[in-house]
Amino acid sequence: MDSYSDISDRSPEEFGIETIDFKVSSSVNLSVQQKLLVGCVLDLFKGKPTLKKLKLWDDNATFNDPLTMAKGRKQYQAQWYGLKAAFSEIEQLEATVLSSTNPIDLYVKTRYKVKGIGIEKIISSNVRIFTDPSEKFITGVDDLWDSGIPNGAIAKVGLFQVLNPLFWLYSMGEVGFWMFSLIWWTRPWEIFRNLNSIVVPIFVSIPKSNESEETEKKK
Fold it and tell me: Which PANTHER family match (predicted)?
């Protein structure tokens, strides 16, 4: 990972961050660096990952949601690029910063459309962004769907989940939901989440460099 000693002086444009205008609760004051990190995470949730943006993540950072426990650059990069690969449409309907502590708390509401299937689902999440003490890098992101267990026909998933029979079992209406609830945070489900973080990097292609990524975008 590139190290930036003067990263606090850098602008969103230098990292290709597009989300610079988002709601902040009236009682919250974000530093310039916190705004940069929040914009980075919101871009990723929109399905717009780039290697340049992910330079704001620590090499050993984590990403956790109900279906995965990703640790380290290889695993969390695959999750973000997998999100882009799995959905034909991702629309961020709302994003509000609720606190500027560590972790930074956000409320995020997003519409997803599964690629090749066309099923749509709106997911509300409480997102926590953990940073290093200097607020230069993201050390972790926790994505809590609907403040807990996700419900409905389709939950936000990565590429591996779309191909996984357990995901479709969960997606079969209320029966699937209650079965999912029974195993929530049990040892078998923890094993599945660990497996997901290992398998996704096998299926998801990550650009080799910033240059190759930019070239691919221009095609």
Answer: NUCLEAR TRANSPORT FACTOR 2 (NTF2) FAMILY PROTEIN
Judge whether 93 and 110 are in contact, CB under 8 Å.
yes
Task: Report whether 134 contacts 63 (CB < 8 A).
Answer: no
Task: Taking residues 38-48, report their average pLDDT.
Answer: 97
Higher pLDDT, 140 or 75: 140
Provide the token pair at 120: 């749509």
CATH of domain 7-205: 3.10.450.50
Give, in order, the Cα–Cα distances in Å from 144 to each of 12, 67, 215. 26, 10, 35
Q: Using one digit for the tens of pLDDT, what is the confidence trace for 180-210?
A: 444 444 555 454 455 555 555 556 667 777 7
DSSP-H helix ranges across the chain: 32-45, 51-54, 73-86, 159-163, 165-170, 173-182, 187-203, 210-218
How many Å apart are CA 27 and CA 204, to the nearest integer?
40
Q: Characterize the bridge pairing of strands 87-99 and 23-24.
A: parallel
β-sheet bridge partners, residue 127: 106, 143
